[in-house]
Design goal:
- It is a single chain.
- With 156 residues, this protein is α+β, with helices and mostly antiparallel strands.
- The protein has a domain at 2-107: OB fold (Dihydrolipoamide Acetyltransferase, E2P), CATH 2.40.50.
- The chain has helices at residues 2-37, 107-148; strands at 39-49, 54-59, 65-66, 83-89, 92-98.
- It has a five-stranded antiparallel beta sheet.
- The longest helix has 42 residues, at 107-148.
- It is rod-shaped.
- The model has no long low-confidence stretch (mean pLDDT 90).
- This is DUF3592 domain-containing protein.
- The chain crosses the membrane at residues 9-30, 103-128.
- Keywords: Membrane, Transmembrane, Transmembrane helix.
Length: 156
Amino acid sequence: MYRRRLHQLIIALYAASIVAMLGMMVGAFLNDRSIESNPGRALATVTDVGITRTYVDFQDSEGIYQSPQSGLLYPTGLGEGQQVWVLYSQSDPDLVKVEGREWTLSILPALSSMVVASLIAAAAWWTVGLSTRAAERRRQANESVNQNFPQASPES
Protein backbone atom coordinates (compact mmCIF):
# COMPACT_ATOMS: atom_id res chain seq x y z
CA MET A 1 0.00 0.00 0.00
CA TYR A 2 2.67 2.50 1.06
CA ARG A 3 4.96 1.42 -1.74
CA ARG A 4 2.30 2.11 -4.35
CA ARG A 5 1.53 5.58 -2.94
CA LEU A 6 5.21 6.47 -2.70
CA HIS A 7 5.77 5.33 -6.28
CA GLN A 8 2.82 7.48 -7.37
CA LEU A 9 4.36 10.46 -5.55
CA ILE A 10 7.70 9.87 -7.30
CA ILE A 11 5.97 9.69 -10.69
CA ALA A 12 4.04 12.91 -9.99
CA LEU A 13 7.17 14.80 -8.91
CA TYR A 14 9.13 13.46 -11.88
CA ALA A 15 6.35 14.49 -14.29
CA ALA A 16 6.28 17.97 -12.73
CA SER A 17 10.03 18.30 -13.19
CA ILE A 18 9.79 17.23 -16.84
CA VAL A 19 7.05 19.82 -17.42
CA ALA A 20 9.29 22.46 -15.80
CA MET A 21 12.20 21.53 -18.08
CA LEU A 22 9.96 21.74 -21.13
CA GLY A 23 8.77 25.11 -19.83
CA MET A 24 12.38 26.31 -19.78
CA MET A 25 12.68 25.64 -23.50
CA VAL A 26 9.20 26.83 -24.49
CA GLY A 27 9.61 30.04 -22.47
CA ALA A 28 12.91 30.82 -24.18
CA PHE A 29 11.35 30.10 -27.58
CA LEU A 30 8.39 32.40 -26.87
CA ASN A 31 10.68 35.20 -25.62
CA ASP A 32 12.75 34.97 -28.80
CA ARG A 33 9.59 35.00 -30.90
CA SER A 34 8.38 38.14 -29.11
CA ILE A 35 11.69 39.87 -29.73
CA GLU A 36 11.76 38.82 -33.39
CA SER A 37 8.20 40.05 -34.01
CA ASN A 38 9.18 43.69 -33.30
CA PRO A 39 12.97 43.84 -32.96
CA GLY A 40 15.17 46.72 -32.01
CA ARG A 41 18.96 46.71 -31.93
CA ALA A 42 21.18 48.65 -29.55
CA LEU A 43 24.63 48.76 -28.04
CA ALA A 44 24.29 47.92 -24.36
CA THR A 45 26.68 48.23 -21.44
CA VAL A 46 26.74 45.42 -18.88
CA THR A 47 26.18 47.11 -15.52
CA ASP A 48 26.04 44.13 -13.16
CA VAL A 49 26.81 40.43 -13.40
CA GLY A 50 25.11 38.56 -10.58
CA ILE A 51 24.62 34.90 -9.76
CA THR A 52 21.12 34.76 -11.23
CA ARG A 53 20.92 37.83 -13.47
CA THR A 54 23.03 40.06 -15.70
CA TYR A 55 21.88 43.66 -16.07
CA VAL A 56 22.48 46.03 -18.97
CA ASP A 57 21.71 49.63 -19.88
CA PHE A 58 20.94 50.62 -23.45
CA GLN A 59 19.30 53.41 -25.42
CA ASP A 60 16.26 52.29 -27.42
CA SER A 61 15.27 53.54 -30.88
CA GLU A 62 13.36 56.47 -29.33
CA GLY A 63 16.41 57.62 -27.35
CA ILE A 64 15.08 56.42 -23.98
CA TYR A 65 17.56 54.68 -21.72
CA GLN A 66 16.41 51.22 -20.72
CA SER A 67 17.59 49.01 -17.87
CA PRO A 68 15.46 45.85 -17.93
CA GLN A 69 14.39 44.70 -14.46
CA SER A 70 14.46 41.03 -15.46
CA GLY A 71 18.00 41.26 -16.79
CA LEU A 72 19.48 40.02 -20.03
CA LEU A 73 18.61 36.75 -21.77
CA TYR A 74 21.52 34.39 -22.60
CA PRO A 75 24.22 36.40 -20.74
CA THR A 76 26.87 33.66 -20.52
CA GLY A 77 30.43 34.94 -20.65
CA LEU A 78 29.70 38.64 -20.21
CA GLY A 79 31.60 40.85 -17.77
CA GLU A 80 30.74 44.08 -16.00
CA GLY A 81 31.55 47.15 -18.11
CA GLN A 82 31.54 45.16 -21.35
CA GLN A 83 29.64 46.56 -24.32
CA VAL A 84 27.56 44.15 -26.35
CA TRP A 85 25.01 44.38 -29.13
CA VAL A 86 21.54 43.39 -27.99
CA LEU A 87 18.19 42.76 -29.62
CA TYR A 88 15.10 43.85 -27.74
CA SER A 89 11.37 43.90 -28.29
CA GLN A 90 10.32 47.44 -29.19
CA SER A 91 6.87 46.72 -27.76
CA ASP A 92 8.44 45.48 -24.48
CA PRO A 93 11.98 46.86 -23.97
CA ASP A 94 12.37 44.76 -20.81
CA LEU A 95 12.67 41.74 -23.11
CA VAL A 96 16.28 41.90 -24.31
CA LYS A 97 18.84 39.32 -25.40
CA VAL A 98 22.42 39.25 -26.62
CA GLU A 99 22.49 39.52 -30.41
CA GLY A 100 23.27 36.21 -32.10
CA ARG A 101 22.11 34.04 -29.22
CA GLU A 102 18.95 31.98 -29.58
CA TRP A 103 16.49 29.94 -27.54
CA THR A 104 18.37 26.80 -28.55
CA LEU A 105 20.88 27.65 -25.80
CA SER A 106 18.21 26.50 -23.34
CA ILE A 107 18.17 22.94 -24.72
CA LEU A 108 21.39 21.74 -23.07
CA PRO A 109 20.53 23.02 -19.55
CA ALA A 110 17.02 21.58 -19.85
CA LEU A 111 18.28 18.18 -21.03
CA SER A 112 20.96 18.02 -18.35
CA SER A 113 18.32 18.91 -15.74
CA MET A 114 16.13 16.11 -17.12
CA VAL A 115 19.01 13.66 -16.73
CA VAL A 116 19.53 14.73 -13.11
CA ALA A 117 15.77 14.50 -12.42
CA SER A 118 15.71 11.02 -13.98
CA LEU A 119 18.62 9.86 -11.82
CA ILE A 120 16.98 11.24 -8.68
CA ALA A 121 13.63 9.63 -9.57
CA ALA A 122 15.32 6.28 -10.28
CA ALA A 123 17.22 6.42 -6.98
CA ALA A 124 14.04 7.32 -5.09
CA TRP A 125 12.12 4.50 -6.82
CA TRP A 126 14.83 1.98 -5.91
CA THR A 127 15.04 3.26 -2.31
CA VAL A 128 11.28 3.04 -1.83
CA GLY A 129 11.23 -0.49 -3.24
CA LEU A 130 14.13 -1.61 -1.08
CA SER A 131 12.89 -0.05 2.16
CA THR A 132 9.27 -1.15 1.78
CA ARG A 133 10.32 -4.71 0.93
CA ALA A 134 12.55 -4.81 4.02
CA ALA A 135 9.73 -3.43 6.18
CA GLU A 136 7.33 -6.02 4.74
CA ARG A 137 9.78 -8.85 5.54
CA ARG A 138 10.16 -7.60 9.12
CA ARG A 139 6.38 -7.41 9.51
CA GLN A 140 5.94 -10.95 8.19
CA ALA A 141 8.72 -12.24 10.46
CA ASN A 142 7.03 -10.63 13.48
CA GLU A 143 3.69 -12.17 12.50
CA SER A 144 5.20 -15.65 12.21
CA VAL A 145 6.90 -15.26 15.62
CA ASN A 146 3.58 -14.16 17.12
CA GLN A 147 1.83 -17.18 15.58
CA ASN A 148 4.46 -19.61 16.93
CA PHE A 149 4.47 -18.05 20.38
CA PRO A 150 0.99 -16.68 21.06
CA GLN A 151 0.74 -14.08 23.76
CA ALA A 152 -0.99 -15.22 26.91
CA SER A 153 -4.12 -13.22 27.37
CA PRO A 154 -4.95 -12.16 30.91
CA GLU A 155 -7.97 -14.02 32.20
CA SER A 156 -10.49 -12.27 34.35
